[in-house]
User: Fold Fe-S cluster assembly ATPase SufC from Flavobacterium azooxidireducens.
Amino acid sequence: MLSIKNLHASIEDKEILKGINLEIKAGEVHAIMGPNGSGKSTLSAVIAGNETFDVTEGSVELLGEDLADLAPEERAHKGIFLSFQYPVEIPGVSVTNFMKTAINETRKANGKEEMPANEMLKLIREKSELLEIDRKFLSRSLNEGFSGGEKKRNEIFQMAMLEPKLAILDETDSGLDIDALRIVANGVNKLKSQDNAVLVITHYQRLLDYIIPDFVHVLMDGKIVKSGGKELAYELEEKGYDWIKSELV
Ligand code: ADP
Ligand code: MG
Ligand code: MG
Assistant:
């Protein structure tokens, strides 16, 4: 699904990613953990095509296709979903209407016709029931006055509707409260299949109590320095990151 080889990325000549290698297969959930400032959010931004970072070496491939020349929207159309991509408030545009536009744009980019209205309604009904999102929520203005939990719910709804091949969830440093964590985890667990993959980026172990990863990688100073199974997350929770540092020297 995703293949990252020797990825180096910089911002203003400061190198942040220093040779990342990562292979994610369909059906897998990978977690990236690491101390603050290690480059986790940079990695998710670079995969999504954020142009504030310069890729100086290496490659990112989705289903065998090199993404180097693709803009963020093009990557999204190919099936990369990054949470926190649409945190904008759009007064007067409902959650539903925003979704309809996003879906039809994606279809257009992939050479498909607009989704017929009845099919769209069916999809909205199906996904909102799956995620236990109520009707009233769907008609509210996008992100306007949304609580943290509602923003998460909206994001997960977007993810469910768009059915991405690769979903990247970057739990920001601000952290999520327990309800928001459950919303995210519940959504991810329901949407996970053999045809998609999930990359969960998190500073803390707690999200991984709800989304069980197949693999855990530790990112430190722009490099993946250790990989393991889900038990690695518990080890990090217990012992912090310093023991890895000392293992490295
Ligand atoms: P993490 O998500 O692991 O906390 P980040 O990827 O946010 O780490 O940041 C990694 C490093 O890159 C930090 O030293 C941070 O200061 C720097 N950095 C990130 N974004 C920018 C930016 N827009 N401008 C300058 N430096 C940045
Ligand atoms: Mg940070
Ligand atoms: Mg971060």
